[in-house]
Design a protein that fits this description.
119 residues; 2 domains
Length: 119
């Protein structure tokens, strides 16, 4: 679900928080697979349209493209791994895996920040 606002010459797009989507899908009785089948293609379409819009406005530099290409193999590997693991983890196991990845990411950010303070 999106909220689109026009302020001056700028078009701002906000995504409603997940809780809103969860309630909306729950009222319709959708399973998690049905929710995923609807929201993942919508998210991909939003990302593509955003990239096209930024590109048309000159908002994508050569450095941005180089960084995107640098990260693309990791993105594809994560997508492949997610597709391979889909359905093999129960919801509790999936939540634990996501929380572990978020914890590792947060610790890496804190460590990087602390290293910058002491150097």
């Amino acid at each position: 679900m999106l909220l689109v606002c026009k302020i001056g010459q700028n078009l701002l797009v906000f995504q409603y928080p997940k809780i809103t989507r969860t309630i909306w899908c729950g009222l319709r009785g959708w399973t998690s697979d049905e929710q995923r089948a609807v929201f993942q293609p919508v998210a991909v379409a939003i990302f593509i349209m955003t990239a096209l819009w930024l590109g048309a406005r000159g908002g994508i530099s050569t450095v941005t493209i180089e960084l995107f290409l640098l990260g693309l193999p990791v993105l594809l590997a994560g997508t492949w791994l997610g597709l391979r693991l889909y359905g093999k983890l129960d919801p509790a196991g999936f939540r634990k895996a996501v929380l572990a990845l978020l914890l590792a990411s947060g610790l890496a950010l804190v460590a990087e920040r602390l290293a910058g303070l002491w150097s």
